[in-house]
Amino acid sequence: MRKLILALASATVLAGAANAATVYPIDRATILVGSPFDFKVEFDAVVKPEDVKVTVNGQDYEAVFGKKAEFVAEEKGAEDMVLGSALTLRGLTIATAGDYKVEVTAGSETKSVNWDVYGTATEAKAKNIIFLVADGLSVAHRTGARIMSKGMTEGKANGRLAMDDIPPVAFIGTSSTHSIATDSANTMSAYMTGHKSRVNALGVYADRTPASLDDPKVETIAEALRRTTTKSIGIVTTSEVEDATPAAVVSHTRKRADKEQIVGMLFDVKPDVLFGGGSVYFLGKDTPGSKRKDDKDYIAEFKNAGYALATDKTELAALSGSNQDKLLGLFHTANLDVTLDREFLKKGTVDKLPNQPGLVEMTKVALDKLSKNPEGFFLVVEAASVDKMSHPLDWDRALVETIEFDKAVGVAREFAASNPDTLIVVTGDHTHGVGIIGTVDDEKPGDEMRQKVGTYDEAGFPNYEDKNGDGYPDRIDVSRRLFLSANNGPDHYETFRPKLDGPFVPAVQNEAKEYVANEAYKDVPGAVFVQGNIPKDGDTGVHAVDDIVLQAIGPGSEGFRGYMEQSDVYRVLVDAFALGAPKE
Amino acid sequence: MTETHPAFFNRRRMLCALAALPTLALARPALASDTLGFGELYKKFGILGLEFSDKVKRLAGQEVTVKGFMAPPLKAEADFFVLTEIPMSLCPFCSSDADWPDNILVVYLARKQTFVQFNAPIEAQGVLEYGSWIDPDTGFVSQLRLREAAFNTA
């Protein structure tokens, strides 16, 4: 009892002491010298402007920052609730590298943060960077792709993936500013800005006001490249081009779902190559299929800005010979169908859009175009559906996506072989809670599928075949196949079999807004009910907090080492390009 | 925020729903309306836009019946829901990395109905309308709608 009272007492004291202002960029932020960013102070209380004092390294902030911040007496939250006063200074740049201590006081509120403003090498180490990211890439995806694609005999792989010969150089911590857990928005944003942020946020720190487009911005790598170089920029993805990972290269929003605005942000930066899906956000609202709320026709806008447009595989192939400045490829209204459906099973939306290219073709055309710039390029290649198929626990599709990703890595390595001034980075943005635990063998006795799961010595080796040597298994539904298992998920039925009719839909929502096992799989012979272990409003498997493996090869790759925060990866990229070189 | 006593509110809502059910069954005239399948909504499905089918254009302004699945609604008291061809596993209203399929139909109910289990097939009936529309309350954009609609489990 006494303990409890003490605990209560200390909780109260804590709440009292928590009366501290919040400062963005956050404490321990790392900032590229010369890069514009927004400075914001959020006070818990309404304070008087004359009581606000901000110093930088002991000097008045205006003297150091060279600008006066705007004071907002009362910031409003939902339903006009007063959140407190705020101070905002947009588009600030710090021209000299070094340690900056920012101290803020107003009334009883006080906060002190330290920033590391860093410069880079004077000379660029690399001319080009190819940043290949498989969304959600976990160790199980790599192992599974290798076994499925190359096979295994007596415990040794029968072949190597393209990524197997790129040295793993760092473990990346993916946690976000408000949680150990994370999503593709803040993770890719950390890679592409050098600043960690909050789940769903891109290129901004997540402030407290409800508006999603007013949060304190930080510079993206695309903006840094435009500001300091004449290099080309490419974004290639199998998702919608507005999806979080590709969007992170250019965007500033608290809400990754602002896809309509993200198209505008892509247009502002004008990547030299932009390939993926998501065409419906480019169409004015009166075009059937449009998901825009305005009349903007971004297809026309991009064309007027000098882009050649491709909408299928044939037109993409024709683009490689195009002498137009910039290339826009939109190959789906939404996300591209996954490789297993696109190339083999013809499921998903392949009947409607039968001529979609894959990541490999898109990467080749992108490299062909970007490499024409004598100043070099920065290319992001994303295998989006490793994640998009891992969420619904469709491991067969996720592994085939990983094989496709690996082929794109192969294309990048081939390019680097003849262009050795190219830095290649291969990584994921976050992990999934998945592991390979053995095989499922239809030949094992009995009717119960669970009894056919082989573990330890009983797992043996899968019997996938690749007779045509294309790197993909000829069939996914072989009699002895890999068994992957998620460590989390909603209620669902485990069928122990590949989903040949289309991607797995493990759970559906009921009228109480809870996700329940999808009855469509209940009567699959041998299916067993798997009790979920995440909250019932969770629709699919979730991201893991586990570190990501980062691999790199080429000039500048020596900058990656040991454990790194995801935001530190940016520093290595901009150092390889010398984007913060001292000005003459 | 509503000040209504929760127990009263719930009971009243349920009574309304119960009362509505038999009326609905009666109000549904057998085969009085044309049926429209999800496969019949568009004649062209392209990257640069979809094109409504001749059937959609012909039936606009008329009562039609469409079979599909009720997607999880934006909120329990919404006066519209989204009808999809296949059950939605993700909830685009609740999850920011989920998005709607292209061939959805928005159903504006003539009067409130209790939402059904979302993976059960339903039959919705209402006056067909096409063209871009932004819901004034929610900002939700739709291309195809059923107005003055009601639904039944199929």
Automatic annotation (TrEMBL), chain A:
Keywords: Signal. It comes from the Bacteria. Pfam families: Alk_phosphatase (PF00245). Residues 1-20 form the signal peptide. The keyword Repeat does not apply. PANTHER family: ALKALINE PHOSPHATASE. Belongs to the alkaline phosphatase family. This is Alkaline phosphatase. It comes from Shinella lacus.
Automatic annotation (TrEMBL), chain B:
It comes from Shinella lacus. Residues 1-32 form the signal peptide. It comes from the Bacteria. This is DUF3299 domain-containing protein. Keywords: Signal.
